[in-house]
């Protein structure tokens, strides 16, 4: 069984001084004689426990903590929990490191808000249980808002050996590989909630235009067909929701314009890892029915993935969803002070009119997964922090109303009342905070807790 492990963080539940982890790991152990979570009878479904919304609860950890789950290979199930019993086992664990020195606040800033969700896939054999260990950094706390574990079909993402971009070789994705979902996007459509997924409770983000370059944002179009009957003859129906395959993004109807630009998405990724890139396609426009009607080129990381991509050729018909898997190496160094490297996904119209009827390209959905390295590691660096503007003449004691003096500096507060004018003048990116007249923060020389931790 290969469960999907989803970790939910709501950085707003804590201040930035409380949320760093050095290590987050998962380990596989022999299953205990008595399962920790019993499956419900086959003839009925147990309603989920009446937990509050996950991001309204926070579990803070100042010492290493473990959560253990008995995984039942024959049952599709979901587990949401704040705490779980510790599983002791004499066997030696074979852990994956999922997160290291992870700062939820910095990550939330980079990815555009809260809550922050981390999704992982690991293989768990029938006689094994899954153990998740949270280890806070020194003088820091780890925290977690929710854990969700969903079993998935073995063939969903572990599908053999995709093409390795830039090589003639294939890249086998085997059971000893862990995956981290980095991007899952419904291209050209709306967001898809977990309840609208195909049973794996996945979230599909939208819109995709935030990842487009300027020409693509200006010229590309969003075709859709909500009346087409989809036929899952080439892939299994649970591969993606039907909503993914009835919308998309294409280059447009003007051949001249299409030949003048490339449909390009840019995705920041952690360096020094291999990535699985899954592209979802479906031809649903009435004019695209034959081989060669719409053929195009696909490039990734400045390498050719497909010289002549033809969705009709892959799917064998209009209205037939299909996906293509590729593995790409992101081993180039970051530019300047950046911690991320950019993956350029480029769809290019063919310049030769004899090779296609419509010089156009289309994409319906996209998933990108980080693959664990030879050390069973998925942890990358924290993303780049936003550029906060330093004030020369103003020092803020956040959460305190009034003035106070420390080490020859005047601290004034609170942050909201002070920034109402200064933020307009300076364009500051200091985050909004709830005022409080009850809290007096210690002077800058005092010891502050860090917010880094690891998984």
UniProtKB/TrEMBL annotation:
Recorded topology in the membrane: Single-pass type I membrane protein
Compartments, record wording: Membrane
Chain residue ranges for the region called Disordered: 32-51, 432-455
Compositional bias segments (type: Pro residues): 38-51
Regions crossing the membrane: none
GO molecular function: ATP binding; protein serine/threonine kinase activity; transmembrane receptor protein tyrosine kinase activity
Domain Malectin-like stretches: 92-370
Keyword NAD: no
Keywords: ATP-binding, Glycoprotein, Kinase, Membrane, Nucleotide-binding, Serine/threonine-protein kinase, Signal, Transferase, Transmembrane, Transmembrane helix
Primary site of residence: membrane
Pfam families: Malectin_like
InterPro entries, sorted: ANXUR1/2-like, Malectin-like_Carb-bd_dom
Cellular component, GO annotation: membrane
Name of the featured protein: Malectin-like domain-containing protein
Upper taxonomic lineage: Eukaryota, Viridiplantae, Streptophyta, Embryophyta, Tracheophyta
